C-alpha cells in the first residue's frame, strides 16, 4: 500500500511580506504590504498611499526574520525540515521595481539565507512574488494593469536566477495567483490600486482592470519559466493557487451548476493557463457576460504555451458550499473567499470551516486534471494561542487539525496522487495577510509580538513543534 515516499519534502511555509521585516534596511523600498495598516477579525486593514503618523504598519517589522534568520533556520532544522518555503522581497532587490541593476545588499542577504539552509541540508522553495509588488510600480503603472510590469518582473527574475542558480532548485512564480480574480486581489496580488486609500476589502470592483492585470502576470510567469527551462535546466518551476474547494449545497442541478461555475473561475482558470498553456474555453462566456476584453499582444499565446509549469502547488485551508436558494443566508468565512456553511463541518475561531477530507478530494481532482507532481504549500489553523506563565503553549487544536489533514494526504497518495511535498503555513508566527494582525497565529513556534506592536520577538516552541518533529522523523507514520 502506498504511503509518503522516502524523499517526501516535509517542511513549512512563510512569506517575506509577513515575516521578514526590516522594511527599509539596506536599500529596500516599500511594497504594497508595507503600505497596509493593521486590522483585526472585525476591522479590515487599510491601504494608505502615504504613511500615517501614529498608525501601525505590521509588515514593517513583522516577526523580523531579517535579523533572526539563523535562529529560525536552526529551529526548522531541529524539527527536521527537508524544505523551507519562503519568498524573496522584490523591493529588496529592486527598490521601486524600475531600476536596471539590482541592489547588491539585498542579493547578499538571500545568499546568507540560502547558505544557512544548505548548512542543514534544507531545500529552499522560493516564491518569487508573494503578495508583494513594489509600491513604485503601483504609482507608476497602476500595478500589473500596466504591461510594463512584465519587463520589470522578468528583469527581477533574471537577477535572482543568475545569482542563486546553484542554491535554489524549486521556484514558484506567483503566490495564490487566482486571488487576482477577486476584488481583494487587486490589492494583494495585482497592486492595481493607484491612489486608493481605504479598507482593502472595499476596493472598487473593476473587473476589466483585474483580469487584464492577471493576463500580464500570466505572460510574465510564462516568460520566466521559458527562460528557466532554456538557461537553467536544473530548475523546477511551479505555480501556486488558492484551492477553494466548493460543494453543491444540495443535489438541485442549479446548485451543482453554480458550484461548477465557481470551481472553474476560482480554482481552475489560472492553473489551466499555467499547466496547459492556454486560456480555457469556459472563460469566454465569463468574459462576455462581465464586459471583459483581454488585450493581448502578438506572441502572447505562444509565450503561454512555451512557459508551462513543471509542478503544481496550492494552499488549502477550508471548503464551503454553493447555493442558489435565497433563503440560505448563513455564510462561512474564508481565505479571501467564502460560501454557504456546511452543516457537517466545524469551524476555526475565524469562521474557516475545517474539512480534512476536502483536501483528499481536492488532491484527487487536481491530479486527475493535470497529472503533474503536486505540493500542498499552505495548510494550517489560525487560532488564539495562550502563552502560559511557564512559557509553554499548548496548541492541541492545531495538532488535531494538521493530523487529520496529513492522514487525508496519505489517503490521496494511496488513491494514486503524486504528492511530493507539504509545507504547513506559518510554521512560525507571522502577520496575517488577510487581517494584518498577530493574534491569528499559525506557527509551531510562538513569536512574542502583539497587535499593538509590542513584544521582544522572542521565539518559543509550542507543543505542535515537538509533534511535527515526530511526524517528520517517522515520514508521516507517527501522527498521534
Descriptors:
480 residues, alpha/beta, eight-stranded parallel β-barrel, two-stranded antiparallel sheet, 36% helix
Q: How would you describe this structure to a colleague?
A:
The chain is 36% helix and 14% strand. It has 480 residues and is an alpha/beta fold. The strands form 6 sheets. Strands 1-3-4-5-7-9-15-16 form an 8-stranded parallel β-barrel, surrounded by 5 helices. A two-stranded antiparallel ribbon has the order 2-6. It has a two-stranded parallel sheet with strand order 8-10. It has helices at 16-19, 65-79, 90-93, 104-119, 135-141, 148-163, 185-188, 207-231, 253-276, 282-289, 300-306, 356-370, 396-414, 463-473; strands at 9-13, 46-47, 83-87, 123-127, 170-172, 198-199, 236-242, 245-248, 311-315, 319-322, 331-332, 339-340, 346-347, 353-354, 374-378, 419-422, 445-447, 459-461.
Helices, strands, pairings?
Elements: E1 9-13, H1 16-19, E2 46-47, H2 65-79, E3 83-87, H3 90-93, H4 104-119, E4 123-127, H5 135-141, H6 148-163, E5 170-172, H7 185-188, E6 198-199, H8 207-231, E7 236-242, E8 245-248, H9 253-276, H10 282-289, H11 300-306, E9 311-315, E10 319-322, E11 331-332, E12 339-340, E13 346-347, E14 353-354, H12 356-370, E15 374-378, H13 396-414, E16 419-422, E17 445-447, E18 459-461, H14 463-473
Parallel strand pairs: 1-3, 1-16, 3-4, 4-5, 5-7, 7-9, 8-10, 9-15, 15-16
Antiparallel strand pairs: 2-6, 11-12, 13-14, 17-18
Amino acid at each position: 500500500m502506498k504511503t509518503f515516499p522516502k524523499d517526501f519534502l516535509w517542511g513549512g511555509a512563510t512569506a517575506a511580506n509577513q515575516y521578514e521585516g526590516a522594511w527599509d534596511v539596506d536599500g529596500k523600498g516599500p511594497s504594497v504590504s508595507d503600505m497596509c495598516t493593521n486590522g483585526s477579525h472585525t476591522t479590515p486593514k487599510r491601504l494608505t498611499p502615504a504613511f500615517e503618523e501614529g498608525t501601525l504598519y505590521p509588515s514593517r517589522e513583522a516577526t523580523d526574520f531579517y535579523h533572526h534568520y539563523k535562529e529560525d533556520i536552526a529551529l526548522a532544522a531541529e524539527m527536521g525540515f527537508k524544505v523551507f518555503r519562503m519568498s524573496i522581497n522584490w523591493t529588496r532587490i529592486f527598490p521601486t521595481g524600475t531600476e536596471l541593476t539590482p541592489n547588491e545588499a539585498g542579493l547578499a542577504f538571500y545568499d546568507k539565507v540560502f547558505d544557512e539552509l544548505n548548512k542543514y541540508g534544507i531545500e529552499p522553495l522560493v516564491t518569487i512574488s508573494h503578495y508583494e509588488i513594489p509600491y513604485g510600480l503601483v504609482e507608476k503603472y497602476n500595478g500589473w494593469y500596466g504591461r510594463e510590469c512584465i519587463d520589470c518582473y522578468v528583469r527581477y527574475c533574471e537577477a535572482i536566477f543568475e545569482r542563486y542558480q546553484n542554491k535554489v532548485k524549486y521556484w514558484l512564480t506567483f503566490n495564490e495567483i487566482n486571488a487576482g480574480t477577486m476584488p481583494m486581489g487587486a490589492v494583494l496580488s495585482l497592486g492595481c490600486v493607484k491612489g486608493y486609500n481605504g479598507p482593502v476589502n472595499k476596493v472598487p470592483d473593476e473587473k476589466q482592470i483585474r483580469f487584464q492585470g492577471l493576463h500580464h502576470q500570466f505572460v510574465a510567469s510564462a516568460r520566466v519559466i521559458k527562460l528557466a527551462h532554456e538557461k537553467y535546466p536544473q530548475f523546477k518551476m511551479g505555480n501556486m493557487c488558492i484551492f477553494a474547494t466548493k460543494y453543491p449545497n444540495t443535489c438541485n442541478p442549479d446548485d451543482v451548476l453554480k458550484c461548477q461555475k465557481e470551481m472553474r473561475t476560482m480554482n481552475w482558470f489560472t492553473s489551466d493557463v499555467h499547466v496547459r498553456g492556454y486560456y480555457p474555453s469556459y472563460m469566454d462566456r465569463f468574459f462576455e457576460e462581465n464586459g471583459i476584453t483581454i488585450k493581448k499582444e502578438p506572441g502572447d499565446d505562444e509565450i503561454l504555451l512555451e512557459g508551462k509549469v513543471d509542478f503544481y502547488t496550492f494552499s488549502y485551508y477550508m471548503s464551503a458550499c454553493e447555493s442558489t436558494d435565497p433563503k440560505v443566508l448563513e455564510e462561512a468565512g474564508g481565505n479571501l473567499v467564502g460560501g454557504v456553511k456546511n452543516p457537517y463541518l466545524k469551524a476555526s475561531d475565524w469562521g474557516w470551516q475545517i474539512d480534512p477530507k476536502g483536501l483528499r478530494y481536492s488532491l484527487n481532482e487536481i491530479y486527475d486534471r493535470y497529472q503533474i507532481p503536486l505540493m500542498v504549500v499552505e495548510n494550517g489553523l489560525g487560532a488564539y494561542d495562550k502563552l502560559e506563565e511557564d512559557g509553554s503553549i499548548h496548541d492541541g487544536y492545531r495538532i488535531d487539525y494538521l493530523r487529520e489533514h496529513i492522514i487525508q494526504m496519505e489517503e490521496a497518495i494511496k488513491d494514486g496522487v503524486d504528492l511530493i511535498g507539504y509545507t504547513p503555513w506559518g510554521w512560525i508566527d507571522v502577520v496575517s495577510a488577510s487581517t494584518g494582525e498577530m493574534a491569528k497565529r499559525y506557527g509551531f513556534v510562538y513569536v512574542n509580538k502583539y497587535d499593538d506592536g509590542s513584544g521582544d520577538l522572542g521565539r518559543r516552541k509550542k507543543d505542535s513543534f515537538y509533534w511535527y518533529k515526530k511526524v517528520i522523523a517517522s515520514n508521516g507514520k507517527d501522527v498521534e
